[in-house]
Design brief:
326 residues, 7-stranded parallel sheet, 7-stranded mixed sheet
């Protein structure tokens, strides 16, 4: 029997990416795709690349004949959706917003949401009925730091500089998402105050509760559509060889995280669920470059990876994707 899936907020970027993955997933049937703004229209009227893959139409109704519900609505909207709809406890929920990611906000009535970073919480995800999917920057930066936290090797301030594509801002137009502003431009924003910092800190404390790491994060808007490249660096006594071995050992059972023998870049991972890490010891500093696709490993791909774990499937099912390369 195939897993029956529904998508809430299916017209946006993460809704569309989730739909594409599920339509091609060998063990999933997409039952419905909800969108208040596009209700009644064929899905291919919005997601034109799905022509030939589906005859579904967007609906403004909620079907309860599903096994799993992907909530791809905006931040703050997932909680509103659950307040307005009585979802059976038998239906698993994977929420892609930030509404339930933090320890102080990870419950809704009788539902408790597990933080869905498989490289950190795989065993808990396998047993979970509700998942709070991590943020894109948070995923990219955490994957650069988890091995160090697990081995108590974060002994100084952590500095992060990371750039993201325009899809990271969502589909709603804003001054900084217009082509004429974004093209041939790079700009920092939310310096030291980005909302994903809280996720990152909570995960690091989970692995190393005796230390509260101070992470200084400078995010940038890039003049490209998708992908994240983060450079994370800190003072370290580790040698290059020991650091690489530590990362390889930590991720030996993580099929989507790879320690690269070259410098990671965005095009190596765009259109995949992979994270590439390059680990470099330069003087007294350890520098880790991490690259992911913000819409896949940073959102929809990770959501499907979590679904696979929740339903006892191989976590790579439906996620063996081809990178763009050029």
């Amino acid at each position: 029997m195939k897993i029956k899936a529904g998508i809430i907020g299916g017209a946006g970027y993460t809704g569309g990416e989730t739909l594409r993955l599920l339509l091609l997933h060998p063990d999933v049937e997409v039952v419905f795709v909800q969108s208040k703004s596009q209700a009644g229209k064929p899905v291919v009227a919005i997601h034109k690349d799905c022509l030939g893959l589906t005859d579904l139409k967007f609906t403004d109704k909620l079907s309860t004949a599903v096994d799993v519900l992907f909530i791809c609505a905006g931040h703050g909207e997932a909680k509103k959706f659950l307040e307005q709809n009585n979802i059976s406890a038998k239906i698993k929920i994977i929420d892609l917003s930030q509404d339930f990611r933090h320890k102080k906000s990870n419950t809704f009535e009788k539902r408790k949401f597990v933080y869905g970073l498989p490289e950190l919480n795989k065993d808990a995800i396998k047993k979970a009925n509700n998942i709070a999917n991590p943020g894109c920057f948070a995923t990219c930066i955490q994957l650069a730091l988890l091995p160090l936290a697990a081995n108590h090797e974060i002994k100084s301030e952590v500095h992060v500089s990371a750039i993201t594509g325009s899809t990271g801002a969502g589909q709603t137009l804003s001054e900084t998402s217009h082509f004429s502003w974004r093209q041939n431009n790079v700009s920092p924003y939310k310096i030291f105050e980005h909302q994903h910092l809280k996720e990152i800190t909570e995960s690091l404390i989970q692995l190393h509760p005796d230390t509260i790491p101070f992470v200084k994060f400078v995010p940038y808007r890039g003049a490209f559509a998708r992908g994240i490249l983060a450079t994370t660096y800190l003072k370290s006594d580790l040698s290059q060889k020991k650091a690489v071995e530590m990362f390889q050992s930590f991720y030996k059972s993580s099929p989507f995280v790879h320690v690269a023998p070259f410098e990671a870049d965005v095009k190596q991972v765009v259109n995949t669920n992979n994270c590439f890490l390059s680990v470099n010891k330069i003087g007294t500093e350890l520098a880790i470059v991490s690259a992911i696709d913000n819409l896949l490993k940073g959102a929809s791909g990770q959501a499907v990876q979590n679904m696979n774990l929740m339903f006892g499937l191989d976590e790579t099912t439906g996620l063996k994707l081809k990178p763009v390369a050029f």
